[in-house]
Amino acid sequence: MILAIETSCDDTCAAVVDGPRILSNVISSQAAAHAGFGGIVPEVASRQHLELTVPVIEAALAEAGVGLDDVEAIAVTAQPGLIGALLVGLNTAKALAAGRRLPLIPVDHLQGHVAANFLGPEPLDPPFLCLVASGGHTLLAAVRDRAGHEVLGQTLDDAAGEAFDKVARLLGLGYPGGPELERLARDGDPEAFEMPVAMARDPGLDFSFSGLKTALAYLCRDLGPAGVEARRADLAAGFQAAAVGQLTAKLKRALKRGEWPAVALGGGVAANGALREAVAALCEEAGVGLKLVPGLLCTDNAAMIASAARFAPRLPFPDYLAYDARPTARPPLAA
Amino acid sequence: MSVVVGFDTATEDTAVAALRGGELVYEARLEPAEKGGPLHASALLSEVEAAVAAAGGWGAVGRLAVGVGPGTFTGIRVGIASAKGLGLSRGLPVSGVCTLDALAAGIGEAAGGRDRLALTDARRGEVFAALYSAAGECLWGPLVSAPEELAERIASLERAALCAGSGAVRFRQQLASRNVEIPNDADPVHRVAARHVCALAASGPGEEGSGAVAPIYLRAPDAERWRERGSLEKAE
Ligand SMILES: [Zn+2]
Question: Would B60 disulfide with which of A67, B56, B119, B227, CB 3.0-4.6 Å?
Answer without folding.
Answer: B56
